[in-house]
């Protein structure tokens, strides 16, 4: 739902977003975490193939990718559970590539929370303080404050198995932040929660991270979660960062078919550039497209989000207009998804808000669909 | 047990249904009855006979002798101590082995388990005689040590406590390793990673996380080895050379040499009582720790 809101609420600026936010230059003292040319191989499998990443202090950066994309390996390298074969990791400017996890001072929330089952919640949260030899009295106060921060006041004496999934999640979070870590790592922490609780926790974690100004790296395979939580998203593909940018950049201006495919449903229309600003769709019709610094005769993909095409009324015009007929209707509640067979010889899928007064279109209805050149993103087909 | 318990209550509360409840248990009873009969005839009855023998003529003189005569009290104390030594040595040796078995990569746990089980394929008597060959004054170990110039005179390894402990630990080690292994396999390695990530050095991870989580295995292993130890006969009899007297050895000699059936029976009941006390004592400790697991 949040994704849809972003998509419809803001119109994308008509400039190409920079491919990589590494183009955004950070001053050295702004950088909380830097990963430089990190390579990690397991036998012949290259889990990480040269990853560069800089995370600003106080920023939440999400590593988004399917399983096997290397996001978890990268997180382990950052936490110190994996030593990279090449490259280096810097925390607050200090080279920690070969430092043990214990020496890094990184707070981590694990997928299954990893709360110690034989300790009370308060003891769990006190554990990192105890390991840092914080005086008992001070530790008690800090544990209380951490419990309050995650809304678990009064539950400190309980044992992990006496808490619900969401409460265990909060306890794990409190344990990860109680010692003021330089960096907070979150490894798919919401995977085990049901949908409603997950949405609530996403927002809570985000608020807490912003309130405390924590530098954080978050790993997920859920694009919606990434859009909700992140300052920036690094989309990972086969051990590399395919695209790095703000949620808006990654969502609206994906730079590859992989990223486009991963960032939610959209139409990807294969076409060939004829001259700057126009292209020919496979099967004949010409379409007007953004001007892009791509040579003519290049194969491109036109990325058209489902909300972008409009149904044109009488007298309405668009830069690209195609008549067609509805071939499938999928009712989604607040919106309806239509598959539309265009007379020009290709199909598009659109998602339009459902208005009760007008009702939904039916299979076979004729209509004119149109979109402007700025509505479609141009992606190299390769 | 719960099922039968609740059915029993039900049967008492609703007499009408009792016959049906009874009938429901008929096949169950039919299946257990051979084993039940076997135990009644060959175990329960002899134990009862033994208990009766210990108070022959209505006198508790045999018990008085067993529990007050310094000589015999010493045997009881020695037995308890030797069992404790054996359990502790098994724990110290077995803990790392079990840890290795539970964490090693693919073929090694299997290979390790075969080696741990290997002693079971040989009779305990044969193994004990083998130790006599190995540990004697002119045994293989002493000869190697002498020839290697490591010692100048043979080490006293046989016919003393050392020999008994070596032999008993050898027999009982698997009983320590397997309960530990079972518990260690269930420890989530993620918890150890989490502890490390939270700043715990290796020994703290062990002390605060791994040891408490494997404590149920430690208690199970100690219970098993201790209970088996206090009733040990062959090993102390052969490797102790008559100098290490454990309660089972004493019982045997009372019967064989002195035909003192009443005294032997009293000692046996004392042994049984010791075993039960240890068992329920450790079980209680267990339960106190159950919330860990």
Care to give the gist of this entry?
The complex is a heterodimer of chains A (382) and B (293). Chain A is of the alpha+beta class and 382 residues long.
Question: Could you characterize what this model shows?
Answer:
- The complex is a heterodimer of chains A (382) and B (293).
- In chain A, a hairpin with a 2-residue loop joins strand 11 (266-275) and strand 12 (278-281).
- Chain A folds into 2 domains: 2-256, P-loop containing nucleotide triphosphate hydrolases (Rossmann fold); 265-380, OB fold (Dihydrolipoamide Acetyltransferase, E2P) (Beta Barrel), CATH 2.40.50.
- Residues 1-23 of chain A have low confidence and may be disordered.
- In chain A, the strands form 4 sheets. Chain A has a 6-stranded mixed β-sheet, with helices on both faces. Chain A has a 5-stranded antiparallel β-sheet with strand order 13-12-11-14-20. A 5-stranded antiparallel β-sheet of chain A has the order 15-19-16-17-18, with no helix packed on it.
- Chain A has 382 residues and is an alpha+beta fold.
- Chain A contains 10 helices and 20 strands.
- The two termini of chain A are 31 Å apart.
- Chain A has helices at 2-9, 71-79, 101-104, 121-131, 136-149, 165-177, 195-212, 223-229, 247-252, 257-262, and strands at residues 31-42, 45-56, 60-64, 86-91, 94-95, 106-109, 183-187, 216-220, 232-237, 240-245, 266-275, 278-281, 286-288, 299-305, 310-312, 320-331, 335-342, 347-353, 366-371, 376-380.
- Chain B has 293 residues and is an all-alpha fold.
- Chain B folds into 2 domains: 1-54, no CATH class; 59-292, MetI-like (MetI-like fold, Orthogonal Bundle), CATH 1.10.3720.
- Chain B is 78% helix and 0% strand.
- Chain B is built from 13 helices and no strands.
- Chain B has helices at 2-13, 18-54, 61-68, 70-103, 107-117, 124-135, 140-147, 161-185, 189-197, 202-230, 234-239, 247-256, 261-289.
- The longest helix of chain B has 37 residues, at 18-54.
- The radius of gyration of chain B is 24 Å and the shape is globular.
- Chain B starts with a helix and ends with a helix.
- The model of chain B is unreliable at 1-15 (pLDDT under 50).
